[in-house]
């Protein structure tokens, strides 16, 4: 393997560490640097076990490989990584005989990431069908609803007594409620997008102040920003709506008592909807509330799925539509005491340079 080979490893989304027979690091690709949280310059030439605390299974696999007990081995394991904490990994070790000894490659894939990619794809197909149904349904309801409201209003004027007018008022009020629901169902498809350079932290700050005004007591919203993040290209209003819907859900789940963390991080070499991006930003909205009710956990992004009697179940559907329109993904991990919504948006660097 040559330097050229090593450079092409940088294009992979899978983390790859090349080691010599003495288990010293020869090269780490970009994805491995990101996973281990250390740079290649630092790692090259070092013994792997000196720079990171190696999971026992990895150590065994590597030393068996160095003694040529096998050519290829794959295992799922847990590894506590300095930059990330415990991570579930799919690890593959292979042996490559070279002219001057053996080289070993250690490939690491995050299982959660793989699952997330599968789930995203599955979800995208399903939600597409769902959304079409919803849109058609909304259109079908909209016109007769206008008629019902109009007729109720006419009737309201003709009625002789206030007592009877109470009934027409109920019809008008309920028709208005339905109208606003239908409008929300149609919203993502109606508004034109305005693309501009958007600073995610401005979006977060805006949402933060709106939420603190809506929940003036007992709600804490912590910021954990990576301020070196470049702007994204996007529609500011849509992105505010996305973050607002997610944060508002968290605040509602906390019933105004608890903590929300807004965390931004850079993500490198990511694949979103089969498209590779060198750079993306991750916004985590984390709360310490009760978690998403188990019976709807798998379906929260579907339209009309809600855990509240008063909820429309459209907030996350809308958020997902907008995020998809930005070429990004939205996903969630939730258990009681910890709910983590991830909004990942690709960063188009050429946009910033224009
Ligand atoms: N952070 C969270 N913690 C616990 N449950 C959550 C959280 N976020 C979402 N949920 C659950 O997911 C459901 C769906 O959320 P979604 O925003 O789509 O609809 P909604 O909030 O019920 O109604 P609306 O359309 O008014 O937003 C919520 O009703 C709630 O039960
Ligand atoms: Mg909501």
What does this protein look like?
The protein folds into two domains: 3-110, PAS domain (Beta-Lactamase), CATH 3.30.450.20; 193-354, Histidine kinase-like ATPase, C-terminal domain (Heat Shock Protein 90, 2-Layer Sandwich). The strands form three sheets. Strands 2-1-5-4-3 form a five-stranded antiparallel β-sheet. Strands 7-9-10-12-11 form a five-stranded mixed β-sheet. The protein has a two-stranded antiparallel sheet with strand order 6-8. The chain is α+β, with helices and mostly antiparallel strands and 354 residues long. The protein has helices spanning 3-9, 30-36, 40-43, 48-51, 56-66, 111-158, 162-190, 200-214, 236-253, 315-325, 349-353; strands at residues 15-20, 25-28, 72-81, 85-98, 101-110, 196-198, 219-224, 232-234, 258-272, 275-287, 329-335, 338-346. Mean pLDDT is 87; it is low at 350-354. The protein is built from eleven helices and twelve strands. The structure holds adenosine-5'-triphosphate and magnesium ion (MG).
């Amino acid at each position: 393997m040559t330097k050229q080979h090593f450079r092409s490893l940088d294009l992979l989304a899978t983390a790859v560490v090349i080691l010599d027979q003495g288990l010293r690091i020869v090269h780490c690709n970009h994805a491995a640097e990101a996973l281990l949280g250390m740079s290649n310059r630092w790692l090259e030439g070092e013994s792997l076990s000196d720079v990171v605390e190696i999971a026992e299974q990895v150590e065994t696999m590597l030393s068996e490989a160095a003694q040529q007990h096998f050519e290829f081995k794959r295992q799922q394991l847990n590894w506590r990584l300095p930059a990330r904490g415990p991570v579930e990994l799919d690890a593959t070790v292979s042996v490559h005989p070279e002219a001057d000894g053996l080289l070993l490659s250690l490939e690491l894939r995050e299982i959660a990431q793989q699952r997330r990619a599968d789930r995203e794809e599955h979800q995208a197909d399903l939600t597409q069908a769902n959304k079409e149904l919803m849109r058609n349904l909304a259109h079908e309801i909209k016109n007769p609803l206008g008629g019902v409201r109009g007729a109720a209003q006419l009737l309201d004027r003709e009625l002789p007594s206030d007592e009877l007018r109470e009934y027409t008022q109920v019809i008008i009020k309920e028709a208005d409620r339905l109208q606003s629901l239908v409008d929300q169902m149609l919203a993502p498809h109606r508004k034109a997008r305005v693309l501009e350079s958007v600073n995610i932290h401005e979006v977060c700050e805006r949402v933060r102040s709106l939420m603190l005004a809506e929940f003036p007591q007992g709600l804490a919203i912590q910021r954990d920003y990576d301020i070196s993040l470049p702007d994204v290209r996007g529609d500011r209003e849509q992105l505010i709506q996305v973050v607002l819907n997610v944060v508002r859900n968290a605040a509602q789940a906390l019933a105004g008592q608890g903590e929300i963390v807004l965390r931004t991080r850079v993500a490198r070499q990511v694949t979103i909807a089969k498209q590779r991006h060198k750079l993306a930003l991750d916004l985590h909205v984390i709360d310490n509330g009760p978690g998403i009710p188990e019976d709807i956990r798998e379906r929260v992004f579907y339209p009309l799925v809600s855990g509240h009697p008063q909820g429309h179940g459209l907030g996350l559907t809308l958020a997902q539509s907008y995020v998809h329109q930005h070429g990004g993904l939205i996903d969630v991990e939730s258990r009681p005491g910890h709910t983590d919504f991830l909004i990942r948006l690709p960063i188009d660097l050429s946009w910033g340079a224009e």
